[in-house]
Amino acid sequence: MLPLATTRLTKFYGNRPVVNSVNLAIPSGCVYGLLGRNGAGKSTLIKMLMGMVQPDAGEATLLGHNVAEMPAEVRQRIAYIAEGHPLYDWMTIQQAIDFVAPFYTRWNGRLVDQIINHFELPRRGKLRRLSNGQRAQVSLALAVAPEPELLILDDPTLGLDTVVRRDFLESLIQIIQRKGRTILFSSHILGDVERIADRIGVMVDGVLRVDCPTEHFRESIKLVTLEFRGVPPDWSGGGGVVSSRHVGSNLELITVGFDAEQRELAESLEPLAIDVLDLNLEDAFIEYTRGPKRSLPLFVTESTDDSYARPQGVA
């Protein structure tokens, strides 16, 4: 059983498909980073997964149950942290804990205490008086206390400063390391995604164009610089090139890989030199999504098992 799967999940706003026939299959124990520029459809996809928005076509299943018909006892095994961390502002932190806990048959009060004490949160402090970082920390405590099997987070570190964001991620990493925990999260902070995500999805205009191991995507996108004397020629197309541009006397290519055939094409232009640069995830994402949308190559690799073993050396 896959903890999270979708089949041709689609949502229209007017005549525009904001989520367009998305197929997802996230195995148990996987940390999945969902990426995309503003308006790409990430939040709408997450809201459909949580049953907050009804799809126009397709279906989604969480922990083996259709989202539209999910029993309450299954929902208790799923946690959700919404963008902006909405909370009952008139409550104190302790009142929020006391209010939420009875809704769950399983509640790890010791874990809540550990998070509250680690972040030095004021239990008697009103939620409306907390900083954005403190609200994120309270949301994390409330979300993980039921020890969910599946955790879904919609841009949880948005608006947090660097130190608070790092502390939040450190706590999240510890939670990830608990056996069998599956996490789907969206983020605009690509460094965070690169650090903790096993797989990534990249949405472009509602279409899931990338669904593969993080390392595979990052290592596939290359910046190839061809140096010329004077005005560089145009790229004629082909050769796995996502985009091309002139920078002074250089021709810069964003390519998918750079094998012998691609090098031969580049050398046919008779450049003075060819330089191939590996990119980090942020640069690879920017360059990939900057290309013409209709010609973007697909990066889709399927998981061969319904359980995911995290690679050695991943935090």
From TrEMBL:
PROSITE patterns: ABC_TRANSPORTER_2. This is ABC transporter domain-containing protein. GO terms for molecular function: ATP binding; ATP hydrolysis activity. The lineage of its organism: Bacteria, Pseudomonadati, Planctomycetota, Planctomycetia, Pirellulales. It comes from the Bacteria. Keywords: ATP-binding, Nucleotide-binding, Transport. InterPro entries: AAA+_ATPase, ABC_transporter-like_ATP-bd, ABC_Transporter_VariousFunc, P-loop_NTPase. Residues 4-230 form the ABC transporter domain. Pfam families: ABC_tran (PF00005).
